[in-house]
Amino acid sequence: MWELIRANKRKSMTLFVGMGFLLILIGYVFGSFYEPDAGGFIGIFFALILWSILSTVSYFGGSKILLGVSGAKEVSQEIHPQLFNVVEEMKIASSFPYMPKVYIIDDPAPNAFATGVKPEKTAIAVTSGLLERLSRYELQGVVAHEMSHIINRDVLLMTFAGMMLGAITIISEVFLRGLYFGGGSRYKSKSSKSSGQAQLIIMIVALVLAILAPILARLLYFAISRKREYLADASAVRLTRYPEGFAAALEKISNSDLDLQKANKITAPMYIVNPLKKKGMKLSDLSSTHPPISERIRILRNLQQGANFKNYQQAFEMVKGKKSDLIPPSALNDPASIGILQPLVTQQTFEEMKSAKREVGDVLMKLNDFKFVNCTCGLKIKIPPAFKQSSFKCPKCGRVHNI
């Protein structure tokens, strides 16, 4: 496992360095455009400063910002014991030394993400829609996937890579807007001198970079993201030993046509399934930041012989129809045999779905400061926070309750 994580880091670091080189290049070219003599190094300086500021803010406050922007609220074991227990089970199964905090997002669209750049300060957030739709075994698969992102330190790398993508995009947009509103006046003043031809070349290179650099950086970022999604899937199956449960969960998520209201371009890569889509469409096979969901499901359902990395690699190559170096050789040579659990009942009955929906509704009310009163007639009465009276009558039996 640790060798896999190290190999995973090395591959991702190569892409990360590529993004860094791109950032330095646009800093140098844009700086040279505005100041031919020494502007290149000044441009590099400002590009690195911008990236450092964004990364520092993300490192120290990124999780709180992400959870806050997503509308996530922390829950305790008392509020939602099943979700809390599933997270704890996956923490124990993975031998991770710290218990992630557990959050719920009040949104009917099913999805989930993990955050936290430090191992001791991580969190797993799921939407209320996910809790309503998934059985316990399916929820295990989703939580195991998010726990794998934490163990593999994906959150840390994606945070810094995401900030580098943001820095490249901001610098390119500022440069293009400057040209648009400034009319290239700086270029014209310099081009009147003998170095005008060289300036023209720099201007063309700068324009090409301003347009292509964000696209290239996004491709590198997505290349990191997609590979890490596959590896998190492979790691999740090792934790649960039940690929069908995880496949069924992905299937339910992908069949949803609900829009995740608080997702945006920055937070989208963090979710288990890319939540950005055209209104009314299903999530199936949207693949800008994630591998196609149908492909991930087919790989999971081709895991018939076992749940170790070698089995996942074989299923991956079978679905892709070509050889791949997704899993490093050291992990493939692991002789440990991890069996698959026998098929479990994952199809929820109508009554179970109704009960799950009611339970999630109660949890959301608790998170929003509702009070619950159990009347002796058997009715559970929910008191909203705006109710300011000291007592009320049970609408069923008329018994008076003091608050």
Compute the number of helices.
13
Order of helices and strands: HHEHEEEHHHHHHHHHHEEEE
How much of the sequence lies in strands comes to 5-15%
Helical content band: 55-70%
| Mean pLDDT over all positions | 81
Distance between the termini: 54 Å
Q: How many strands in all?
A: 8
Q: Within the largest sheet, what's the order of strands? A: 1-2-4-3
Radius of gyration in whole Å, from Cα? 25 Å
Poorly predicted tracts of residues: none
What's the main sheet like? 4 strands, mixed
Shape: globular
Query: What structural class do helix, strand and pairing data support?
Result: alpha+beta
What characteristics describe this protein?
two-stranded antiparallel ribbon, single chain, alpha+beta, globular
Concise overview:
The chain is 58% helix and 8% strand.
What does this structure look like?
The mean pLDDT is 81. This protein has 13 helices and 8 strands. With 403 residues, it is of the alpha+beta class. The strands form 3 sheets. The chain has a 4-stranded mixed β-sheet with strand order 1-2-4-3, sandwiched between helices. Strands 5-6 form a two-stranded antiparallel sheet. β7 (391-393) and β8 (400-402) form a beta hairpin. α1 (2-34) runs antiparallel to α8 (196-240) and α9 (243-254) runs antiparallel to α10.
